[in-house]
Amino acid sequence: MTSEIELTLIGKPGCHLCDDAEAVIQGVLVDFEGKTLLTKKNILDDDELFARFSEEIPVLLINGQVHNYWRIDPIRFREALEKLG
Question: At 38, which helix (H) or strand (E)?
Fold first, then answer.
């Protein structure tokens, strides 16, 4: 049995790119139900995240590693999940 894939979406309220990224992520995750855990983090609530990613949001981490930032490509994201799943 494979372990759950941890996804972290780093963004902030009012960010249209963040909203777009979340929509793409949710669309892909429909096919990975029960295999992933998505956590959303607000960059404004975390000084370390702000210092590291303030110019790159939204940022998607897969198991703690940066997968992509700004725009999430659904095909590339799906392929990454399939490799881990």
Answer: strand 36-42
